[in-house]
């Protein structure tokens, strides 16, 4: 299955499911209902949809950050924390259908949960890939050379949180490029070959580890 970068150019209601199916392939687990006793009041529909999609894959969709299990969601200080990393965490105020996401319990991202979860899925696919390349502290010319082999994603979501570091893609590839990093992910090993001719000293290359 060829993944088409254009699917992420305009984020829509079905973008999460379409991206996951394109990037990871067909689900390897049967569809099942979520067991959510006492939780629905804390679980907006977009987050419930994330867990329904994730339940159909044996490979966790969130591997860098932890996506809190629905049964473990709790409200504290008026917020419900749902996605937690080593140095950051994200939450929302319960009660709204599609609440704005709050970073570190203090700063509103301005991004509604439904869109943020698409961002989270792409972030996880890019930063915890089965096939990937990482090069830190590139020169501007090195970033430009990589960028020429990709296509910038159009939706404004992909310029959050730092417009200087943006998401790119192409068939079977995702990239997060900025002045301090080149992070690339491929759906399969051969997709990374597009960058071999650049001669970059990769800090991490899944083909050699």
Helix content class:
10-25%
Low-confidence stretches: none
* Strand-residue proportion: 15-25%
Helix/strand-derived category reads: alpha+beta
Count of DSSP-assigned helices: 4
One letter per element, helices H and strands E, the order comes to HHEEEEEEHEHEEEEE
Count the beta strands: 12
Shape: globular
Nearest-integer average pLDDT: 93
| Biggest beta sheet summary | 6 strands, antiparallel
State the end-to-end CA separation.
Answer: 26 Å
Estimated radius of gyration: 18 Å
Q: How would you characterize the overall build of this protein?
A:
The protein has 209 residues and is α+β, with helices and mostly antiparallel strands. It has helices spanning 15-24, 45-54, 113-127, 140-147; strands at residues 66-67, 75-76, 79-84, 89-92, 100-103, 107-112, 132-136, 151-152, 166-170, 173-178, 181-186, 204-205. Helix 1 (15-24) packs parallel to helix 3. 21% of the residues lie in helices and 24% in strands. It has 4 helices and 12 strands. The strands form 2 sheets. Strands 1, 2, 3, 4, 5 and 6 form a 6-stranded antiparallel β-sheet that branches. A 6-stranded antiparallel β-sheet has the order 8-9-10-11-7-12, sandwiched between helices. The model has no long low-confidence stretch (mean pLDDT 93). The two termini are 26 Å apart.
Name the features.
209 residues; six-stranded antiparallel sheet; 4 helices; 12 strands; globular; alpha+beta
